Target: Transposase
Amino acid sequence: MDKCVGTPKPPPSLPELPEWQLRTLIRSLQVPEPGPKPGRPRTYTHTHILRIHVYRAFMGWSVERMLRELRRDPSLCRALGLPSVPSRATVSERSKHLPWQALWQRQGGEKTKRRVLALDATALPAQATDPEACWGRDSKGQWVYGYKLHLLLDLDTGEILAHKIAPTGLTSVTPANRHDGPVGWALVRGIASWEGEKPSLLLGDSAYDAEGLFQAAEEKGLLLLSGHNRRRGKPRGRRRGENLRRLQRGAYRRLYRRR
Model:
């Protein structure tokens, strides 16, 4: 504690810390680990995943940006004590087991922080002999024979918030030719309502540009920001029209690029 007389100087903000000092600080973080699991031991511990999230939070990076920087800069990987660079799927899966609810809660009854979520469909190629698979396009527009995995993600933490279709409870894996919109609607309908000072954002590409999905998100306390499907012409419906106008504003365009 500072014993000097007078008004104490405010501490420097964390982003102003020297790079080596920030890395040392993150390297010192430790969290309790679960007991050993049967079979092959875990490559990445809870501590590894937490360090990734804390470091990128200081830097203002998304999970994707953090993983790119780790691959680009091996010294950062070593500084955080990581054995290697995990995949996005590994970060998402392991993040589910960290106590995010407790970390996001504020003391004193304050409302939760605004979050940025995303609807995403990932192509899962299959063998040509699989009779239940179908031809469809992946996120880059390339044809793929297989399936799609539909997810609702938290872009800040990498946490998977929904991967089952309500009300069936079935895992959201569909043939690759299944349209993303109806599955996204079912995922949104199946989650709990969100509360906060501002509605949390839900990002999605033009496949989710549907009035019913905008309404479902609104009912859950989410503000859906989707791409505009130009093939459908001028948006019909109040919410689709409002979405198109938001996309023309700089702040929302920058947020939309986080998909």
User: Anything to note?
Assistant: Residues 16-33+44-101 form one domain. The chain has two domains: 16-33+44-101, 114-256. The first strand starts at residue 116 and ends at 125. The mean pLDDT is 76.
